[in-house]
UniProtKB/TrEMBL annotation:
Residue segments, region Disordered: 1-31
Gene Ontology CC: cytosol; early endosome; recycling endosome; trans-Golgi network
Single GO BP term: endosome organization
Protein name stated in the entry: PH domain-containing protein
Domain named PH: residues: 33-137
InterPro entries with a match to the protein in the record: Boi1/Boi2-like (IPR045188), PH-like_dom_sf (IPR011993), PH_domain (IPR001849)
PROSITE patterns (alphabetical): PH_DOMAIN (PS50003)
Length: 305
């Protein structure tokens, strides 16, 4: 009977492992995993400066990689969150500019790490938040599935597949909102040129011209950053030079003070020695005077006798 029970448990564990493996394949399969990506403004942690970043969300891992430009191969950083993280559309416009009203997204993690992001439009911000919430459900369902395999939970493994499907659908809809926001932003940047386009469609020549303009702006900004960095380096160099000169003056003053201290110490030692010599000489004179006085008294006594 025990062997039958053990065999049944082994079969159950084997089925759970097989189901979990199917779920893992589903999570990692390009056909079932939809990656949301698009431009977001990210506030830096140190300077509180807003920088434009191209953000790529992987719902299967709970990671948001971000780069400076879409075409870049180097990842500048990663935002990691889980099912317990706080993801919300901020009621406060912490960017400050009126055009970003309703576009701000806040992410807070259990590690006390906070991220402040801004989308192109309010609808794009809502799309990012809804997709991040769907990603949290995927992460939570996957965790429950892993716990159920280890006997730590009672979640059904089939739930993961359902949640992944819902998250994919959410991400697809969100991508449409993000793409629409990108077109709105590009049309706004083009200004009067956009009005010449039929039905709001952007031809290749216009996109190329705008891309060249953006690249020129980026190079101009880079030149300004380099100049500002050079100016900062010169200021730091000047301050270091001033610090070195001040340190040299302080060292010279300390040396002079030390020499003066040594001279005073030597002078005090000499005065002390002179004083001791004076005391000894006074004692000798006193003894001599005492002896002469005593000798004179004895003579007087003898003469009187």
């Amino acid at each position: 009977m025990d062997s039958n029970a053990n065999g049944g448990r082994s079969t159950m564990v084997g089925e759970m492992e097989s189901s979990l493996e199917r779920v893992r394949r589903q999570l990692s399969s390009p056909s079932t995993r939809h990656i949301l990506q698009g431009p977001l403004l990210k506030r830096s942690d140190t300077l509180r400066k807003w920088n434009e970043r191209w953000v790529i969300l992987d719902p299967a891992t709970g990671k948001m990689e971000y780069k400076v430009r879409r075409s870049d191969t180097t990842v500048r950083g990663i935002i990691v969150f889980d099912s317990t993280s706080t993801v919300t559309l901020s009621p406060t416009n912490f960017h400050g500019l009126p055009k970003y009203e309703g576009c701000c997204v806040y992410i807070g993690t259990p590690q006390k790490k906070e991220y402040f992001l801004c989308a192109e439009t309010p609808s794009a911000a809502r799309a990012w938040v809804s997709t991040l919430h769907a990603t949290q459900l995927v992460l939570q369902a996957h965790k429950q599935a892993v716990d159920s395999l280890g006997g730590n939970g009672s979640a059904k493994l089939g739930t993961v597949a359902t949640v992944v499907a819902v998250a994919n659908a959410t991400a697809i809809e969100a991508s449409k909102e993000v793409e629409a926001a990108m077109k709105i932003s590009l049309r706004a940047a083009l200004g009067s040129t956009t009005n010449k386009l039929s039905k709001g469609q952007l031809d290749d020549l216009t996109i190329m011209m705008e891309t060249l303009r953006v690249k020129d702006d980026e190079l101009h900004q880079l030149l300004q950053d380099i100049r500002a960095r050079d100016s900062t380096i010169r200021e730091i160099t000047d301050k270091l030079q001033e610090t070195a000169e001040a340190a040299e003056s302080a060292a010279s003053a300390a040396h002079a003070i030390d020499e003066a201290r040594r001279f005073l110490s030597s002078e005090l030692e000499r005065l002390k020695q002179d004083q001791e010599n004076q005391v000894e000489l006074s004692l000798l004179r006193f003894e001599l005077a005492f002896m002469l006085t005593a000798k004179g008294i004895r003579r007087e006594v003898k003469a009187s006798c």
